[in-house]
């Protein structure tokens, strides 16, 4: 037994000693060198690089995919006709509904040669969307993220902790998981409830990472649960948020609780754009990763004008997405007056918020979508959780052919109660159609109580 323990300890230390860039592979190292070098590009060099990459992608989609060939032909347009951003604006946008219906036709003829990686978007905006991204695109994404980490003051192998989704863990009830290669401790946000919270708090307190990564709602819930438990705040130098909109009350709470500098990353699971908040406080678009447009009506938005965020990933040849409508709104703001880099800046206005649920004991994050998938429930194409009362939620479903109400409704109710630790009575509501926005998105969690908190509501009951 002692020999086995020594062997495990030796393996753990070997993993810790492997450099992160080496473990990511040659392609990552090449792209990481490039994105650091591109910070010194002039405006003209950056525009030329971005437009050349976009033109190459347009040509590829026309000659290699059924979907885009038909789209161009119907518009009586050829790739060589697109010479300016105004020309590119002529192409219609795509969205998750279009992708879901046309995925096979969007794949190129040489799909296998693009080294595709399967991606499933979260269910926070409706049914999870299956996509593919090329290994080259994934290497570029990692390079952009690590360039941002470095700009925040965090570097390879420094201690990190991540509040992750239950989907990131082998088992729902697992509290933590350690990534030895990246020196990152994963903390299961499923357990950010009053009963299990101290397991997560203790792990983070022992870790004392240089950087904490997570969705703003999960980090905010951690802070609230810690305050309600009466335990000491944990000082962490850097808090890094992603995936959801970062609101002013998040910033205030994170600064008060952790004493941290806060940085935000705006992207999407479809990996069509990457926007990074730097020390200046502004959000910088990373044009090396994706071509970003702001569209008001049928034209490109002016500087400071609100528009839909439309983006095209420049390296994903596995399933090319030309002019993908993110469903979010933003404003182009031009170049940063503080930073000496060519990246344009923007303001994010909406579309990314995700409400938490309120209980009499505090706040809980809702992971019903992943919980149902893990437990084999396949009777609904779309799921939405609505909270209008303290102790009751409505689980709204758009059923598919696998759903039999007499058999499955009570089973769904029990799973929902189990997922949320019995905090809520559960009503099931069937929808005739999914309540999508025009961009094909649907709010996954809607809590009318989350803006107030448990104390205000319980005092009124």
Mind explaining what this structure looks like?
Helices cover 35% and strands 25% of the residues. It is an alpha/beta fold and 461 residues long. The C terminus is likely disordered. The radius of gyration is 23 Å and the shape is globular. Among the domains are: 204 residues, Rossmann fold (3-Layer(aba) Sandwich); 102 residues, 2-Layer Sandwich (GMP Synthetase, Chain A, domain 3), CATH 3.30.300.30. The chain has 14 helices and 21 strands.
Topology:
Elements: H1 2-17, H2 20-24, H3 26-37, H4 43-64, H5 66-74, H6 85-88, H7 96-106, E1 116-120, E2 130-134, H8 135-152, E3 160-164, E4 176-179, E5 184-188, H9 197-207, E6 211-214, H10 216-229, E7 238-242, H11 248-258, E8 261-267, E9 274-277, E10 283-285, E11 290-296, E12 299-300, E13 307-313, E14 324-335, E15 344-350, E16 357-358, E17 363-364, H12 368-374, E18 380-389, E19 392-399, H13 405-419, E20 425-430, E21 445-447, H14 454-458
Parallel strand pairs: 3-5, 3-6, 6-7, 7-8, 18-21, 19-20
Antiparallel strand pairs: 1-2, 4-5, 8-9, 9-10, 10-15, 11-12, 11-13, 13-14, 14-15, 16-17, 18-19
